[in-house]
Design a protein that fits this description.
Length: 82
């Protein structure tokens, strides 16, 4: 059984007609372009919302304490008397 490999659309003429008569722009119909663009916009909105929530959570965790101190360091540094 032989598989037919998909072919890339010719970019020299980006607007063509399929054998079924539908108009295509770089291999996709206008409705396919619309649905693909809408899906990508929704995906990026979802990702932006996810990272915004992570940023808010990190900000709340960071500001939950009174101050930040590095482990093993004492602030302010006071030298010991010799």
């Amino acid at each position: 059984m032989k598989c037919k490999m998909p072919t890339l659309p010719k970019l020299s003429n980006p607007i063509q007609r399929r054998p079924d008569g539908k108009l295509t722009i770089v291999g996709l119909t206008p409705m396919e372009w619309f649905t693909t663009t809408l899906a990508l916009v929704l995906l990026y909105i979802l990702l932006a919302g996810f990272f915004a929530v992570l940023l808010i959570i990190a900000d709340r965790i960071r500001h939950a304490g009174d101050s930040y101190e590095r482990p093993g360091r004492v602030f302010p540094f006071v030298p010991a008397d010799d």
